[in-house]
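Run: sequence + 2-acetamido-2-deoxy-beta-D-glucopyranose -> complex structure.
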Amino acid sequence: MKFGLLYDLVAFLSSILVRTPAPRADASDCRCVYGQSCWPSEQNFDSLSAQLSVPLIRPVPPASACYPVGNPSGNCSDARRNWVSGIWRSDQPGGYEYPNFETHMDSVDGSVSGCYLNTTLGIPCGRGSVAPVGVDARTVEDVRAAVRFAGRHNLRLVVKKTGHDLLGRSAARDAFMIWTHHLKNISYDANFIPEGGSDYETVPALTIGAGVQWKEAYAAAAEQQRFIVGGFSDDGSDGAAGGWIMGGGHSPLSTTYGLGVDNVVQFTIVTADGEHVVANAQRHSDLFWALRGGGAGSWGVVTSVTYRTHDLVPLVFTSINGTFPNPQAAQKAITEYINPHPKLSNSGWGGYSIFNNEILFIYLLAVNVSWADANATIHPFFDLVRNAAGPSNMDAFTQPFDNFYAWMDSLAPVPFGGVGENTELASRLVSRDVVAENRTAETARLFLSFDIMVFNLLAGGAASAFAFTAETWEEGASSDVVFQARQRVAEHVRRLDSISPDSATYMNEASLHEPDFRKSFFGSHYGRLRSIKRQYDPKSMFLVAEGVGSEDWNGDSTRPV
Ligand SMILES: Cc1cc2nc3c(=O)[nH]c(=O)nc-3n(C[C@H](O)[C@H](O)[C@H](O)COP(=O)(O)OP(=O)(O)OC[C@H]3O[C@@H](n4cnc5c(N)ncnc54)[C@H](O)[C@@H]3O)c2cc1C
Ligand SMILES: *[C@@H]1O[C@H](CO)[C@@H](O)[C@H](O)[C@H]1NC(C)=O
Ligand SMILES: *[C@@H]1O[C@H](CO)[C@@H](O)[C@H](O)[C@H]1NC(C)=O
Ligand SMILES: *[C@@H]1O[C@H](CO)[C@@H](O)[C@H](O)[C@H]1NC(C)=O
Ligand SMILES: *[C@@H]1O[C@H](CO)[C@@H](O)[C@H](O)[C@H]1NC(C)=O
Ligand SMILES: *[C@@H]1O[C@H](CO)[C@@H](O)[C@H](O)[C@H]1NC(C)=O
Ligand SMILES: *[C@@H]1O[C@H](CO)[C@@H](O)[C@H](O)[C@H]1NC(C)=O
Ligand SMILES: *[C@@H]1O[C@H](CO)[C@@H](O)[C@H](O)[C@H]1NC(C)=O
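>> structure
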């Protein structure tokens, strides 16, 4: 089974299409970037370095290994072999899952700077949006020193963990980077007491450093015979304590256990003033609230996250896959598929699917139900899809597993398709009203008009599913080609929005072309988030595309508008 397929679609680019408006504020309000006279001197960097555990890093794009002039020690065969490996990319400070984020397109003249694996293109290797220098944080003190240094020199600052972000929020051209990758501590406490909490309310909790990736967090939880709500990719390279959690964090079991943000009990974070604080229900509870869905990269540098863990329970896996003989069959089957979603999610099913007019793959899990009960809820649905497509065109089965990890271990490892490709997403949450108002046929028609649709059952409440599609382009593409691909993404967003007007989307898997990110990512919470941002980050040190407060800045977050 390859869940990687879901992300075969995914990826992305950094800067924004809009032309930079003329600055209103004077230059001193601007962020200092590499190459400007305000950029710290080598002596400044040396004195920073003296406070750090390890030397400063000089991130480079992964493909620079193939350009000996800029990177004489680079190993190009290693880069070729690992180009599509999420692990290899996240192990490098200059590596991003989707290389378009390593690239930079100038918003004024359209020129592109990037570094491509295909050297025969004859394009010199450019640093693009990869920061030239940064701190490889090993301790909280390293993070504090880096934040104070960035504040003192008014630097454009970027925080990077895995580089998986689909809005390019962990890349920033000519910025100063804090790389959290090596903050790998993990500890389990069966009787965790949040700071300031009551001794009577202990939580069986796993505390992980900001650099921990899901494969590591799952291994640690499994060792304790505990389940933890986490992200899913087949190599487990996605980060467990960075963008995932601050954006919400969905898991295939979220219909039962909630999102990541429903399972956090405490953060530790270095704030813009360089202080290291605890944020939980008792301490800095406003910041705790903002960190649970207020968006990545906007609040400070998270140093650890403590998650509630759960008992291991059995689950039932179901898989449906096959081909449609014609578009009419696809229309019928997908209508039947969207229809029972609210019911499926109520009866504990969650997971992923991908389809278009030709193919259908569905992978769902139901937690803590007997095999017979799971069959009873899913078999009627098997019949509907089989009838729509023709029984011989669809395979469907259910299979019980002792627990989540047993299921994950059963999945065959596959090369991770989408990684290493330039892609942008367009997404929407699908409201339950679509079913209640009998608009499933219309919705199926819209979804089937895209080349490919990913349709995930990962939430509860008012959302019955989360849907996205994508556009991709070849490396080295001209700015015209990239611009056109992005316009198609913007159009996809508009079309998807029509199924649930005024609906929302999941910011961690979204587009830079949201008509109004404040509304679609944060809704009525935006005002409160703004005021918490003003309190904890009054000088807006932590800025990301489509993040809280970013509307006051240009596309590169270097200049107020
Ligand atoms: C292969 C793959 C699988 C995925 N699977 C899932 C999934 O199952 N569920 C899901 O919900 N999402 C999933 N996503 C989306 C994922 O949640 C986002 O890409 C998320 O932004 C990744 O966060 P990161 O910290 O790993 O990545 P990065 O790109 O390193 O960082 C993302 C953002 O978080 C900020 N950030 C990172 N660390 C810190 C920190 N310590 N303090 C402050 N800010 C920080 C960065 O500045 C940036 O703004 C997946 C993405 C990919 C590419
Ligand atoms: C380059 O990488 C390849 C494949 O990853 C490895 O086998 C080889 O030993 C490396 N060469 C050098 C000089 O490090
Ligand atoms: C690399 O670029 C050249 C020139 O555009 C092209 O002919 C070739 O097919 C490309 N190679 C790959 C592997 O994409
Ligand atoms: C990691 O754990 C070690 C051992 O408990 C501790 O000394 C160190 O301070 C921790 N590091 C961080 C960044 O929390
Ligand atoms: C479903 O997937 C399996 C495994 O990839 C494949 O062997 C089978 O042919 C597929 N079924 C249909 C009906 O396409
Ligand atoms: C699992 O089901 C059992 C029996 O119905 C119930 O007692 C238990 O609370 C459930 N556990 C979870 C995590 O839902
Ligand atoms: C559940 O359904 C599968 C087919 O999907 C069947 O093989 C299995 O025997 C059923 N299990 C129970 C307990 O009914
Ligand atoms: C739902 O809409 C379809 C047309 O799209 C119509 O045929 C059907 O009668 C409607 N069902 C209900 C319950 O309104």
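>> summary
The two ends are 48 Å apart (CA to CA). The longest helix spans residues 371-389.
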